Amino acid sequence: MTDSSSLPVRDLRQITVRPILHEEDSRWNALMRTHHYLGFRSLVGESLKYVALSGSEWVALLGWGAAAFKCGDRDRWIGWAPPEQFRRLRYIANNQRFLILPEARTPHLASRVLGLCLRRLSSDWRRQFNHPILLAETFVDPSRFAGTCYKAAGWICLGETRGFGRNGGVYYAHGQKKTVWVRPLHARAPAILAAPFDDPLLLGGSMSALPVDSLRLDGETGLFTLLRTTVRDPRKARGIRHNYLSVLLVGLAGVLAGKRSYEGIARWAQDLSQSQLRRLGCRWSPGKERFL
Fold this sequence. Notes:
- The protein is of the alpha+beta class.
- It folds into two domains: 12-195, Gcn5-related N-acetyltransferase (GNAT) (Aminopeptidase, 3-Layer(aba) Sandwich), CATH 3.40.630.30; 212-291, no CATH class.
- 32% of the residues lie in helices and 21% in strands.
- The chain is built from ten helices and eleven strands.
- The strands form three sheets. It has a seven-stranded mixed β-sheet with strand order 1-2-3-4-5-9-6, sandwiched between helices. The protein has a two-stranded antiparallel ribbon with strand order 7-8.
- The longest helix is centred in the middle third of the chain and has 21 residues, at 109-129.
- This is H repeat-associated protein N-terminal domain-containing protein.
- Residues 230-280 form the H repeat-associated protein N-terminal domain.
């Protein structure tokens, strides 16, 4: 980002932030190329460009794009395993460019603009790309900036990068270490990103969305293994028709899909496909030639 220090905006309460219009793209690009210390060519991945205005005057520009493929401090803070990391990077947006225009520099403008942008970032992203943003991230060059505006806007400094970049899928050492900053946009952001199943929030917010296909069932940390080693079957052997693990998994998946009663889970389970019932370990009926 570019710091601010002089020529005041008269009233920070009048600042507004919105995505740029299609016809404003060339102006946004030109200003970023001219005034940002890194210049500008393009944003990476799914991206949105914003402008902050004081009345009708442009005072700041923000560019959001795809998250860093890997970042040790961020990944440890989230606590996710590689399968979840690679599937859910799309729910993190990287503040790839932030510029306070020279004629608008004034104390507290940067943190004000950041805060206003974060309030709408996830909903704007959902409208544009059909999924929310749970976490914002950025990388700050400590030789130029202290990250004060990010701290003032509620961001968390997680540490420092090792000074590597990625180009064409290949990592290389450039020696330019940067501080890592994140800002959760949901109270449960780390837990949702690291969970072995897809939270309904990631599936469009629909409480009837089925997380069955994304549940991690097998392997050392899979639900089959965890349930088998932590829960004992209390039933007597006589009359048992269904494996207790499949009963537990169907119930758990129903709860994850938003059902809060036995009746609701039962109705939900009736709509499961045969492949989903098979995945949950349900019983095969030779007579009916289907999973029950």
